[in-house]
Write a structure and sequence with these properties.
The protein has 14 helices and 25 strands. It is of the alpha+beta class. The strands form six sheets. Strands 12, 15, 18, 20, 21, 24 and 25 form a seven-stranded antiparallel β-sheet that branches. The relative contact order is 0.13. It binds adenosine monophosphate and glycine. Adenosine monophosphate (AMP) binds next to strand 7, strand 8, strand 9 and strand 17.
């Protein structure tokens, strides 16, 4: 069987590894924006190219005649690569452009949930409204009044289009005053036509990804990401410095009801998309959730695998990934195709020392003095790494490699990942605290405090402990 895999990065390496483990003798045709030695080692061929050049992607697809395509990055999915491939008869594990609005437009997603009575959003407003809200001075007043009077100064401003994870700004963190919030909201409207204003939620974040084929939804183990660059969740946001998952496929700070509710929301949203567009969503639906004092809220949706989340989830898959993908594209996705081992995982990203602030280490050599994987113990997935003519591995400027420890407990998985990370040679660093008992206890304590503190007037309004560090 042949798969066209559109992805570079460690996420792409983890996806390629899952295909390579399939009993169906998969041949991987890899299309990468930047060369990836990890994927190349598993692929029949690798084309380093602009994956946003859909004509060129389709030309390679016509020549190689894959059984299906797997598209991983948000820009290719949001730009409609699945639609382009469909015109030449190739099905994709990735939603079509219209359905990918679930990720590419936060305003669309909030309105979709509202229209279909899915009660999972914070208080929000999309401006200008589709009915044509005021412009100019009127609009500025409307933004100010909503932030001040409805959100009581605890707010989030979201750019309403893809912006590489950089379009979201929070009060008290990126936006110090209401004036800053108003001018950023106006800037968003100026640039992309719309802005989403919403209540700032207090709680603990987690990711629930599901395989989706129209109305059929099969969930994966829940994962928690750590976006901040430095220990103790400090410093600037990154693509994700590391993640963990637990043996029971939930997380230590979630109740059984929390997990069930998050699963239900993904299910309801898949159904809402089907009703809204009349065409099936086929691919990965990635819910970014937050556990709050009285349940679960949705922060955002992505239409793809998370990075690092895929690095935790895919090594746990004991069933055939290719069969799941075929089930998705043919509309025959069933629960019995999907089995994950009951192990815990901890992923720590090795990154250049100065990441994400500067690119000072780009071009330096990095060495991993251990093999790529040991069954049931660990995996090493290459990210922004290239290989020179002498076979040296060379640092790029972004995240270098994800090291995933696998164990019978989070503590065991963490110890494995940590030990391997310590052996990496080069001008790199990683977060030691990810997956450590102290960090997990902090999340558990926070949820306990939230759940048992006295109720406030609205269950949704932010608690008095509204500092940025309260959202993990
Ligand atoms: P997004 O791109 O929507 O995932 O937002 C990026 C990050 O901003 C999230 O991971 C959260 O940490 C934070 N964030 C987004 N929306 C909210 C919200 N309503 N309340 C609190 N934090 C939020
Ligand atoms: N883990 C964050 C993302 O993939 O967007």
């Amino acid at each position: 069987m042949i798969v066209l895999l559109v992805s570079s990065s460690a996420r792409g390496h983890a996806i390629a590894d899952a295909f390579a483990r399939s009993p169906q003798n998969m041949e991987i045709i890899s299309l990468c924006p930047t060369a990836n030695p990890g994927i190349r080692a598993l692929a029949r061929e690798q084309h380093v190219m602009n994956i946003m050049n859909f004509e060129q992607v389709c030309a390679i697809a016509k020549k190689t005649q894959p059984d299906f395509a797997f598209i991983a990055p948000d820009d290719a999915i949001g730009g409609g690569l699945a639609d382009a491939l469909e015109t030449i008869g190739i099905a994709s594990v990735a939603p079509k452009k219209e359905l990918a609005k679930i990720e590419s437009s936060k305003g669309f997603t909030r309105n979709l949930l509202k229209k279909h009575d899915i009660d999972a959003s914070p208080k929000f407003r999309v401006l200008p409204s589709l009915e044509g809200g005021g412009r100019g001075r009127g609009l500025e007043q409307e933004i100010r009044s909503y932030i001040e009077n409805e959100l009581h100064g605890e707010y989030v401003v979201k750019y309403d289009a893809l912006k590489g994870g950089k379009g979201v700004k929070l009060s008290g963190e990126h936006l110090e005053t209401i004036d800053h919030g108003v001018s950023y909201a106006l800037e968003c409207i100026e640039e992309c036509g719309r802005v989403v204003l919403e209540e700032k939620l207090i709680g603990v974040e987690f990711s629930l990804l599901s395989f989706v084929s129209g109305p059929d939804v099969v969930h994966m183990p829940v994962v928690q990401d750590h976006k901040r660059a430095y220990e103790n969740d400090t410093g600037p946001n990154t693509g994700g410095m590391g993640t963990y998952s637990d043996t029971n496929h939930s997380l230590p700070f979630l109740t059984e009801n929390d997990l069930k509710r998050a699963q239900e929301i993904n299910q309801l949203v898949a159904h809402a998309l089907l009703r809204e567009f009349g065409i099936p969503y086929k691919g990965i639906l990635y819910g970014g959730f937050i556990a709050v004092r009285d349940g679960i809220r949705l922060i955002e949706y992505n239409a793809r695998f998370g990075d690092p989340e895929a690095l935790n989830i895919l090594p746990l898959l004991t069933s055939d990934f290719a069969a799941i993908c075929l089930g998705i594209v043919t509309g025959e996705l069933t629960e019995d195709l999907v089995h994950f081992s009951r192990k815990a995982t901890v992923c720590k990203y090795i990154v250049p020392e100065s990441y994400p602030v500067s690119k000072d280490q780009k071009g330096d050599i990095v060495e991993f003095p251990f093999s790529h994987s040991a069954p049931d113990r660990y995996n090493l997935f290459y990210g922004d790494i290239s290989e020179d003519l002498n076979g040296n591995l060379i640092l790029g400027s972004s995240r270098t490699a994800g090291i995933v420890g696998i164990g019978d407990s989070i503590a065991q998985a963490e110890a494995i990942a940590q030990k391997l990370c310590e052996q990496v040679q080069g001008p790199v660093r990683f977060r030691r605290d990810i997956g450590k008992e102290e960090m997990i206890q902090k999340r558990k304590d926070m949820m306990k405090d939230l759940r048992y503190s006295s109720p406030v007037s609205s269950s949704r309004s932010a608690l008095p402990l509204s500092t940025s560090s309260t959202v993990f």
